[in-house]
Design brief:
Layout lengths: L1 E5 L2 H18 L4 E4 L6 H13 L8 E4 L1 E3 L10 H10 L9 E2 L7 H15 L4 E5 L20 E4 L2 H4 L2 H4 L7 E4 L2 H5 L3 E6 L5 H7 L19 E6 L4
Parallel strand pairs: 1-10, 2-3, 2-6, 3-5, 6-9, 9-10
Antiparallel strand pairs: 4-8, 7-8
Helix pairs in contact: 1-2
Length: about 240
């Protein structure tokens, strides 16, 4: 894992954008796995700005959602799909046939099966953008004695249900749909964004290079091509 400490969130986002854009320039049709939340917002803003200047760069880009809140329709503004549509899909003019999201019209378990099948056909992921949860999760892969390797329905932890996106909902979901660690680790390149409050202990534990299912993000140490960008304020 290549750990880079950035002066602030703005510098972190700019660094992440440079990494992602360089990969897109090498392969215009790459598959980008996109996380949501506050951590990647600056990155997506930088990509949107570049798309305004050079829309052709993103003409063949494909995007897959990392996860989705359980029980929300794709059209719900609080959904991860709604977040991605506003901040990434529409600004980059990603057409519906170039986006893989969780199908909210079917049962959650079936939606995960459909996503696994779609990823088998369209993958592997070229660049996976992740944020670090306060409890060490990536996607909705929550800490535990065991982890589900594949796309699955995950029961959300108390910490995750207190996430800003969940708190804005009338009833925070008790479950989520997420890609599993096996699918994440199959990505050719991973960009982990570490920013936000209340993560100092989790970050310190991650940087000790000890791998444990009780800290899902630590499994990224098993991957050979991870850029971990850390906002200095988190340390």
């Amino acid at each position: 894992m290549n750990v880079v400490t950035c002066e602030n969130d703005e510098r972190l986002s700019a660094h992440a954008a440079a990494l992602v854009i360089a990969e897109i320039e090498r392969r215009r049709s790459l598959l980008l796995c996109a996380a949501t939340g506050s951590s990647p917002t600056g990155l997506y803003s930088a990509l949107a700005e570049r798309a305004h200047q050079d829309p052709e760069l993103f003409r063949d880009l494909r995007v897959i959602a990392l996860d989705e809140w359980g029980g929300l329709r794709e059209t719900d503004p609080g959904s991860t799909t709604g977040y991605l549509r506003e901040r990434l899909l529409d600004p980059l003019a990603i057409s519906a046939d170039r986006f893989l999201g969780f199908d909210s019209s079917v049962e959650p378990a079936l939606a995960c099966q459909k996503m696994r099948a779609a990823l088998d056909q369209s993958g592997p992921i070229d660049v996976c953008v992740l944020g670090l949860g306060a409890n060490g999760h990536v996607g909705f892969n929550e800490p535990g004695l065991t982890l589900d390797p594949n796309c699955h329905v995950a029961r959300l932890s108390v910490e995750t249900r207190q996430h800003a996106m969940a708190r804005s909902m009338d009833r925070p979901p008790e479950f989520g749909l997420t890609l599993g660690l096996q699918e994440i680790l199959a990505s050719k390149r991973i960009v982990l964004l570490v920013t936000g409050k209340g993560k100092q202990q989790t970050v310190a534990r991650l940087l000790r290079e000890e791998v444990s299912t009780t800290l899902p993000a630590s499994l990224l140490w098993l991957h050979g091509n991870v850029d971990c960008l850390v906002d200095r304020a988190v340390l």
